[in-house]
Amino acid sequence: MKVLQVVNFRWYNAQAHYGYVLSCALAELGADVHLLAHPDSPLFSMARSGCQGLRLIPFRFTGRGLFGYIGASGFVRKLLAEEGYDIVNVHRGEEHTLFSMCRKHTGQFSLIRTISDKRHTRKSIFSHHQLRRLTDGVICVSRSLLDDISIAGVPADRLEYIPLGIDTALFTPRKGGNLRARLGIADDEIVVTILARFSPVKGHSIFIQMARILSDRFANLHFLIVGYPAQISEDEISAMIKDAGIEDKTSVIVGSRTVFDVLSTTDIGLIPSNGSEYIARTLLEYIASGVPIVASNVGVLPDIITDDFGIVVDDITPTAFADAVSSIINSGKIQQMGKFAREIAEKRYSIENFAKHTIDFYEKILERKSSK
Known about the structure:
Elements: E1 2-6, H1 14-29, E2 32-37, H2 42-50, E3 54-58, H3 65-83, E4 87-90, H4 93-102, E5 110-115, H5 125-133, E6 137-140, H6 143-151, E7 159-161, H7 179-183, E8 190-195, H8 204-217, E9 221-227, H9 234-244, E10 250-254, H10 259-265, E11 268-271, H11 281-288, E12 293-296, H12 301-304, E13 310-313, H13 318-331, H14 334-348, H15 351-370
Parallel strand pairs: 1-2, 1-4, 2-3, 4-5, 5-6, 6-7, 8-9, 8-11, 9-10, 11-12, 12-13
Helix pairs in contact: 1-15, 3-4, 8-9, 8-13, 11-14
């Protein structure tokens, strides 16, 4: 099977990560995979140095204006005619439009659209037509997105829910290291962690107010905030911690180089997001590392989390999260829940399963097309 993955994001966001991981996983599985991406993007550099068996094709299309589409269409039509792809899988709306335009003039490839963002499920007449008439298959990264696309009238046999996979050999339960000692965390303290960029959507204010409530309930807790400044600065995070009166119980780490140390130190992972989380890379890193979860009921989080290793919180408030964390602590099952989280990661969300699930869907679409 010859596959073109179109992952044309200038920045390395969650959508770019999904496309990159998928491209590498499919190549590892033996598919002939080409990756179309902006040559100045972090994704392009990562794929060039870290992904074996993948052909990289530079593509500077921005999707701005009619002339931009016309200019790019010549390159795309030539590429499609020369390569004869079986599948073209686009991960961004602009390229979906571009390849929809070009398919009338080039070959018999099947066009797949991966949707990983709520913004692209808008219910315009053109969007509905594009999905129903010009697209052979649609992959949604969460069930809530799948429901939205169903409303657009896309037949069920052309829809598939495929969440992100995680490298369970790279992310694995680890204990030890010197992070606890460096941060002055006692061996008997329970570490509750938020691992996310400093942005309002990620719920840092909820986490910090929850930590204030929990610090009154338990004497042996330590709170770990790990990420990098985005819409919220490091100083603002520090000010929120000071206002909550939990400075002596909270550590802040800026940057992600110590992610494995952080995961190995964490006893309970928190995802108090108030939106997004359609790909939820951090959730998969937590569970592959054997960490129980408390998370908001948004995006793909409720699709993945089960009662055996986590709690999904409907009410995104500090008290609701504090009650959920308290429930896990009082159950005495932190280690048991962590083991189950790891088992689920291996059985359902490994990179291998991710790639096989996608290949199966591609084959289903190709078979459906050839039977017409």
